[in-house]
Write a structure and sequence with these properties.
By secondary structure, this protein is α/β, with parallel strands linked by helices. It is 44% helix and 23% strand. It has a single domain, classed as 3-Layer(aba) Sandwich (Glutaredoxin), CATH 3.40.30.10. The chain has a five-stranded mixed β-sheet, sandwiched between helices. Helix 3 links the parallel strand 2 (44-50) and strand 3.
Length: 133
């Protein structure tokens, strides 16, 4: 129940931020070129190994979407890796299951979460990517 409430709150925050004209950070489907460019620019990056059928991934998506409207995450680049269709990329990131989040600052991995849906935990790791620690 608390996860549903957290996800709902994140969705409401995203809607309010969007309506107020706030601009979210960038979120795209993973490509090697986008990933390399983000790393070259020393950006904070979240690689989300996700599947359309995964309920945990859906909660993670709502949490991430809500976080991207917060000013401290304005420069975060989120790249979604399709667990079913990008098996080579999934393996390259060492993900053994969907709902894996890998946090980078440039070329450095700063954190990894698997199956996490707690907004505070995900945002804390996003902050580590921003801070580079």
């Amino acid at each position: 129940m608390r996860y549903a409430i957290a996800a709902l709150a994140a969705g409401i925050l995203a809607a309010v931020s969007y309506a107020s004209g706030s601009i979210a950070a960038e979120r795209d489907a993973y490509t090697p070129a986008l990933f390399a460019a983000a790393q070259a620019h020393n950006e904070p990056i979240v690689v989300h190994v996700t599947a359309s059928w995964c309920p945990t991934c859906q909660v993670q998506n709502r949490v991430i979407e809500g976080a991207l409207f917060k000013p401290q995450f304005a420069n975060v680049r989120v790249l979604d890796v399709d667990f079913d269709d990008q098996k080579d990329v999934v393996a390259a990131f060492g993900a053994t299951e969907q709902s894996t989040l890998v946090f980078f600052h440039g070329k450095t991995i700063v954190a990894r979460l698997v199956g996490a849906t707690d907004a505070a935990a995900i945002e804390a790791m996003m902050q580590r990517a921003v801070d580079g620690r």
